[in-house]
Amino acid sequence: MRDFKSGNYINQGYYKSFQPDFVDRQWHVDNMEIMQLLSQADRELGRLDMYSNYIPNIELFISMHVLKEATQSSKIEGTQTNIEEALLDKEDVPLDKRDDWEEVQNYINAMDAAIKALDKLPFSSRLIRETHSVLMQGVRGSKKQPGEFRSSQNWIGGASINDAIFVPPVHTSIQELMADIEKFVHDDNKYFPELLKIGVVHYQFETIHPFLDGNGRVGRLMIPLYLVSKGILRKPILYLSDFLERNRTHYYDNLMRVREKNDIDQWLKFFLVGIIETAKNGIETFDNILRLQKEVEQKIQTLGSRAANAQKVVNQLYHKPIVNAEKVAGIADISLPSAYLLIKELERLGIIKEITGGQRKKVYLFEEYLQIFK
């Protein structure tokens, strides 16, 4: 895209802010490598989307995809919660890790709320602001205008604006820049492939950095939202944060390369490689889930009269692979002594294992299932 211009640095006295050009324009793709990657990304996404019809009760497994995305996206921002900790109830999380834990839970809640909101809202600034509001509720950054575009200057990297790595545009231009993204997303008169469009949108959103905090997480969350809103995926089953976390330096370098060298091609190639790799990993994950599901069902069938209750518990474990006796009693609607007997059988079959090592308040993990996501 030789005619692409990212924007200009504007002297603000003692610092320079970056003012991006609008993206709602006619785009011409003349890079054959991008077209080849785009074709491969479309194919892999089509294969991944088939699982939405192929797997019964796919919602059971989506929650673990979201949990992994939440931990990886938050990890990019510096939080340290891992998947096992994110599965715990709040009271079981050490006090010094609760802030990180709450940020991960907020990400999960924000994703759930945003997907539900798509039933009544298009992909829009309003949807993005509402999602940001959920993300920032009651956590670090909750005093930084949750759900509202910033009304002051922010910066990325550096102890102060003077030594910042990047200074986004002045706050007075955010409304029109976000309105431009919205027009670009819904502009059907100028054809541009949807995967390239969301690649440009993600870049532009991160460049605008419209919130005082949480921009990275919202920007990554927008990708599956967009794919679902456009009908490219029926369910939110593609999450790029794991790829972006593993390639964090390239991620930031490629974003900066667009701003400084107008090289949108390199960014889009990186973005498409991320989609291809993530879709392939998603397909492998679902194949492993189906294999495990079959093995577990065969084991459960050996339990005779307890098989039906065991299946109820396992179905819940696919949603959240950690449980205790009280929860088993509630899921299967049985007494606590019966729950302990059922747990003993599930342990014997190797489906769950106790992870606390204590005599009281025992917690059990569906470890083989969790490993699929790790």
- For the termini, the CA-CA separation is 37 Å
- Number of DSSP helical runs: 15
CATH architecture of the largest domain: Orthogonal Bundle
CATH class term of the largest domain: Mainly Alpha
User: What is the element string, with H for helices and E for strands?
Assistant: EEHHHHHHHHHHHHEHHEEH
Structural class, by secondary structure, is mainly alpha
Radius of gyration: 23 Å
In terms of DSSP E residues, the strand content is under 5%
Number of strands: 5
Arrangement of strands in the largest sheet: 3-5-4
Q: Estimate nothing, just give the exact number of structural domains.
A: 2
In one word, what is the shape?
globular
Largest sheet: 3 strands, antiparallel
Structure description:
By secondary structure, this protein is mainly alpha-helical. Helices cover 58% and strands 4% of the residues. The protein has helices at residues 32-54, 59-76, 83-87, 98-117, 125-135, 174-186, 194-208, 215-229, 241-246, 248-261, 264-300, 307-319, 325-332, 336-348, 367-372; strands at 7-11, 16-20, 322-323, 353-354, 364-365. It has a 3-stranded antiparallel beta sheet. It has a two-stranded antiparallel sheet with strand order 1-2. A hairpin with a 4-residue loop joins strand 1 and strand 2. Helix 2 packs parallel to helix 12 and helix 4 packs antiparallel against helix 5.
Short description:
This protein is mainly alpha-helical and 374 residues long. The protein is built from 15 helices and 5 strands.
List the helices and strands and how they pair.
Elements: E1 7-11, E2 16-20, H1 32-54, H2 59-76, H3 83-87, H4 98-117, H5 125-135, H6 174-186, H7 194-208, H8 215-229, H9 241-246, H10 248-261, H11 264-300, H12 307-319, E3 322-323, H13 325-332, H14 336-348, E4 353-354, E5 364-365, H15 367-372
